[in-house]
## 1
Amino acid sequence: MPMWPRRTCREVTRLVLMNEDRRLAWHQRFAVRLHMKVCLACPRFLKQVRFMRSAMGNWRRYAESEDEGAV
């Protein structure tokens, strides 16, 4: 059995989402990075997650600015 078992897309997407809440361990980050080099779908998923994080941040700032203007 290899020292670094290959991760499935399901495992990598779970790790990508876990990384939204907390910093992954070094071996998990390494496994994700390795998987991203050989997979076509997972980098797209990561890009979508980053886009959603950015969009939510923009929405929060917009909502807060509207709240300040209503007072």
Note: The mean pLDDT is 89.
## 2
Amino acid sequence: MAKTYLSHLPRKFMRLVAGFSQKSGQYYLSRATVQPPRSLTKRIWPWVDAGLAYYRAIDHSKLDDFTQDCLDASARQFLELMEWLRIILLQDAAILQKSCPGLPLWQHEVFSLPDWNVFATDVMSVHIRAEMPKDMLLTVTMPRVAEAIDENRQAFMKMFE
């Protein structure tokens, strides 16, 4: 799918517009470190769980080739994507709720559960202190240090021309 449908997206531009470096892999989302409890995720698109349970219950070793071909891999992959996106939706919602409190989205039942308040507080506390991991910090900082050294070297060399 990535080779067919997503090959022409302007990724460098998309990273820049999102506030990250043009280079891939040089971003860190602190809110992604806090996983929502199952009590919340199961209330976002509950049909995802039923669909995935169906696909996971199939014993592929007992199916003939024709039946294997009839199983729609795209549907399973779509359900897995939706499973992942509902986690992201909840992580992002914890931050959005503070900046846009009047949105009708907050009327959904999931945002009135006690687990939501605990989860949203955890996400906000991680988001506020937003400290980049040390290994990520090095990969972002080292190219900038190298550029600064090179600029200083060139300026120094111009002094003696």
Note: Helices lie at 11-17, 38-41, 47-57, 65-70, 73-99, 114-129, 134-159.
## 3
Amino acid sequence: MTIAAIAEREAIGETGALFADIRRALGVPVVNLVWRHLATFPGGLDWAWRAVRPFYVSGAAAREGATLLAALPLSAVSTWSRGALRAAGVDEAGERTVVTVLDSYNRSNAMNLVALTALAARLRNDFAPVAAAAAAAALAGTPPAVEGELPALLSVAEMTPAIAEMVRRLDRLGERGEPRIPASMYRHLAHWPGFLGLAHALVAPLDHDGRLGDLIEATRILAGAAAERAMTELAGPGPAPGPATQDAVPAALLEFTDGVIAKMVPIAALLRRAVPA
């Protein structure tokens, strides 16, 4: 289960500069997998980022993302005690880092889902934008950026077989079949195997009885409505890349927004609720 992507630590030149700009605009210390995947297509990342960048730098993406998260019909989730976290091997410093990971993905995934759903629709000419003013009253305040650093993104080769299997089990939750795109969040959290176990124990029952699937579908519906508003915030994508990239980028955007990002928005929100404030 792999997908082509440029690692943040390996990004140099124009790609490195684009990655830095994405981190600044999103207000998170990570470049999500979708952007790193788009960077594998010649001219693809620049083409997509030019179109959606104004939506992020204006603060509209953060507000729409916060509104989407607030509207999710999340099931009642009990907060884990700090004793449970410590027993799972998450010490005080680890807890702070876990919260940074979850906050980063909650913020960035929600924004990316709205922005890239809008961009994918524009590139496919699926729907026209609606007046942003009509929805302005519904938007939440602009949430602050996420400070701190994320732990290293572990590869499967850097995990023990037991930890790698738990990551695979988590990746299968919320999937219609075998997942093709791995969720990077779990690989950041793999430094705390006990936390992965807590996460699986929380989310697996929701997946088993269909509640997670309902949440994912609700996320897609909310993102679609937000994307219609976001269309007015997008810029022209600029000079088009080659035909192969023009075909590959919309397909990749649809695969991410309909799949792993829509899945991880509610999962990360559920996990954040379970961690003490």
Note: Confidence is low (pLDDT under 50) at residues 131-137.
## 4
Amino acid sequence: MTEATFITKNENAWKSLESLNHQVAKSGVRALAPEEVKEFARLFRLASHHLAYVKTHFPQSHMLPYLNRVVGVTHNYFYVRQSRAVSDIRGYFTHTFPRAVRETYRFWVLATALFVLGMLFAGGYVAADLSRLHDIMPPGFGHFDVTEVPDLGDGAVPWEYSLMAATITTNNITVTFNAIAGGLLAGLGTAFILIYNGLIVGGLFGFFHSAGANMTVAYALVLPHGVIELAAIFLSGGCGLMLAKGLLIPGEYTRRQALVMQGKKAATLIPGIVAMLVVAGIIEGYFTPLPIDPWWKLAFAALTGIGLVAYCLPRRVGRQKEAWLDAGKDKA
């Protein structure tokens, strides 16, 4: 075979491998669909054989430096462990986490439904008799005089911002991890936490509404941080329900195997959930208490909601297909 014929026959494969190298360099291996990972490995083996062939039969070929470079770059992705913490983090938040949210939507939608169920029940329960608020609120929450219209002021709260942000974040992380761990109780613990928190939110807003409080201010005290915070709680509830599914509905697997599989999927979501809670805690500690017009706070809440939806929408690169590379798979 002549050099020209060899190049013409194989150059498309080399260009495909080079294209995948660029894609991995930009977004990481986790951005590839499973089929693309297999193709990546196949092209690497093929190009390695071609490189050896060129060195043997066409040692003066102008293609030798090119093939050396392409195969060398790919070799690094497969065999050289590099410190790529920043790249890995970026890849997780730009691809892995939003894709995992989409893949597990059935679980967090069910978790959301449990929360809303508790919220609606408590709203109606308290609206029928305002004194019932004290039956729902946890101890130490504070006492509301149900005979007076609640004075929420202008929505400003005199907090020590940095201390409150840290306290709130810690509390929220505790709640979400309890919701996840509750899945090991056949999902009963997760369901209890979701419904109970829904009861608190529904009871409080049912009281404010029926007592004649300024609802614009009431919503402005919760929604700026609440949109992200509640989304994180729903996702953590979804993680707990995944574990429950592994225990209760293992399918063709043993319960242990199913639990491990569901646990890996849940683990993929946890870093993103923690990041959401940190952001929500900062907003609740620094922004929510500010003495500004409540409508600005509600506008901010609307923007966070739109941002979350846009962030989780599918993003395709070239012909990349939606897929999930489970946490725990070896990195190239």
Note: Residues 3-82 form one domain.
